Structure formats: structure tokens, C-alpha cells
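Usage

Read records sequentially. Each one opens with the input sequence:
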Amino acid sequence: LAAGEGPEAAVAALQLVASGHADAADRLAELAPAQEPRFRLMAGHALRRLGRDLPELSLHGLTEDGRRIGELSVELRGGLDIHAEIEGYKVANVISEALLASFPHGNHATQFYVYWVHTAPQWRRAGLSRLAFAAAMEHEEAQRCSCFALNTGTRNNAHSMYADFGFVDVGRSVHAHKPLALGTPCAPPDGVTIRPMADDDRESVRRFLLSHHERSFSTWLLPVPVLPEGTRVTLAEKGGKLIGAAVGRMRGEDNAEIIDVAVDHAAEQRPELGVALLARLHMLLAADGAKTAAVYPESDTDPIGDIIARAGYSRRLSGGVSMFGIRDLRRLFEEIRPLYERRLADAKLTDWRGRVIITGERLHAGLEVDRGEVAVIDAAARPTDIELRADDATITRFVAGCETPLEGVLQRRSEVSPQVNAPVMTLLEGLFPECPFIVRWDW
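and closes with the structure output:
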């Protein structure tokens, strides 16, 4: 059929090329220019996947009357909006904005966040989203940021496209649910008192929650909890000191949402304490009329997961995933440089002097350490330097705290030179430890 003439032959050639039959590419390239715009774009996209880029089959190709098939419109009004327009209609878009990412201990990095990528159903499989997405990532608004992020779904067709642009999965969203009933207390550990929050506790609870999450990484700017009217909070105290808090609220007539469960990192029996806090909170919410409680979204790397599971919640992956990428590793290191000085101090490595060079496929930067002080450098590794080599995705996971250098070495996704030994790995694990990932605080 593809050997014939007319629209039927063109459709057959397109189906063959889209299925990977390169021998039909010449026939498709011959037939496609005479077809209507949507077919031309789909043919051009299929041919590009085989390595053939024909300008006449692109968005900027010309129609029979000399006009362009379409164009990309770019609007920068607070955020960056890019649309693919055809015959006066916006058929695909990428909506994005320059924001900040939250790294541990109050450090922040410039981040290009992509909110929404969409193509009208009848214009899909023509490469329009990829074209608009590439334009967004190449825009100066994105280029002035050290990193980038978005939220999507693991069953989204665009998930692999985002990976092509350097986005890496850093946290999967989990939904958790539990039926509630009055009279289900849980005894706290010895010496711990659990009670509802009083009005004069509000400020100390806000400070505690913010301090508790200072070790976390998030692709959102973490806000200061405001604990509005209607929020239910239970506190854990030991020796007059606040060591835990659980926060919830009603969400509908008979449903409640658990917003946060935080327990002092140094507290003994942390999981048991968290379960006791939740049990008391459940009683308050049930008294308000809640029949079920839910936690969403929760990250699969957030420590709250262990407490939720012990408290009897049914947990499932929601299909949502947070993705993060690094555009300029050196700029990112410069923006969060104090974080590495803090980590060296926490790991008691302030006497160490030397250089750590991170080398990837595209990402490259170094940290020069002199007795606790850190400078960011861009240099090739010397024989005496510690060099950590890996693909860019693995380096991104190290920097985001999703994976540690030791895990990378053991799983053979990274290499360390001049040698792997205990002092070297202690240093690398101190600089790039695993840290919790927070999907988003919805206060």
C-alpha cells in the first residue's frame, strides 16, 4: 500500500515508520509534504525519531500558500508560558516559572519549575510537546537557574521525555488511608506526656516543625507552618521539652487529613512515639466527625512512612513522581556551599584538607576543603584528589540525597579514585548523606 499514491499510501508509510521500519522513511518523506498540516507534523516527528530532520515537516514548515504551519509563542509574565500555535489555535503548551528549591539546613537553590505540559488530543504524536519543552528549557529564564524540577506520573507518556532532558526521579508519592473510631488510644513511651495543643503552644509548635524538617530536601520552598483555626495538633513532651507533634484537619464532612507527624530525631522509641501521637490525634479528629484519615501526598523516602505503617494505615503508590535535575552543578554548589561546611562539621571532618571532584557526562564541579571551609572549583582531578565519577542521573541523586556514594559504588553505578577506603567513603558520605524528601507541605 505504501508504494501507491495518495493519502492511503501516506498513512501506510507513516504507520510503517512509526513502527520502526526505516526502509519506509524515503517513501514517507516523499508523500508527507502534500498532506494536511497535522499529518505533516506527525510524519516529521516519526522521521526525526529515525534521525531524519526535514524542515518542511516541522512546525515552521511552509504550507502551499507560503504560510508557516505554525509557530511557538513565548510569553514571560511572572512565569514562562510557551505555546505551539497552529491556524490561530494553541494546541500545546508548557507552563513554567523560576522558583527556589529547599536544601537542608536553610539552603536554597535557583530552580526552574515546570507546572504543566499538555497537547490537545488531536495534535498528539507530532512532537509538539517536546518542541515546546525544549524551547522552555533553553529559554534564558531556565538558563539562569542551577536546577529544574517537575511533578508527573510514572504512567505518563512524557515521563521518558523528561528523563531525556536530565530530570531524575527523586520521590514517588504515596497515599495512605485508615478508618477512624473513637476510643483507640495508644500508650506513649515511659516518661512522655501526650496532650492536645493549647493556644499558647502554637508558636513553639511552629518552630519545632520547621526545625524538624531542616534536614529535608524539597523541590518546593518549604513554608513556615501557620496552624490555622480548625487545625488539630497533639504534642509529646518529656521533662517539659517538646519532642513531637502530629497535625491534622478536617477535609470534608467525614474525612480528615494528616498533615504532618514530627518526632525529635534524638528521641528514644521514635516510631512508637509517633504512633502514640497519631492515636491521640485520631481521637480528636473522630470527635470532629471524621470516619477516615488520609495522608497525601507522602514521599516514599519520608520517615513518616514507618510511623504511618505502624499506625495501621493502608499505603499505596499513587503513581505520582517528583523529578529533579541539575543544569549547572558548579552554580548549584555555589548556591548551597554553606550546606557542605555544615555537613563537614556534623561529621567531625573539619580537620580534612583536599579536593573532591565530581565528574559526570555533562555535570562537573569540585569542592576544595580546607579545615572546614569549602570553596567551589571547576578543575580536572589531580592524582591526589578524590574523584567521584558517575552518570549525570546518579550524580543528581547523590546531590539530592536520594542515594549515597557508598550505595553508588556498591551497585557499580559510580567509581571513586584514587582508591576506595574507609576514610574516603566517610568523607563522601558526610558530604552527600541520604536525606528525607518532602513532596510538598500543604499548610
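Summary fields computed downstream for this record:
- The two ends are 60 Å apart (CA to CA).
- The chain has a mean pLDDT of 92.
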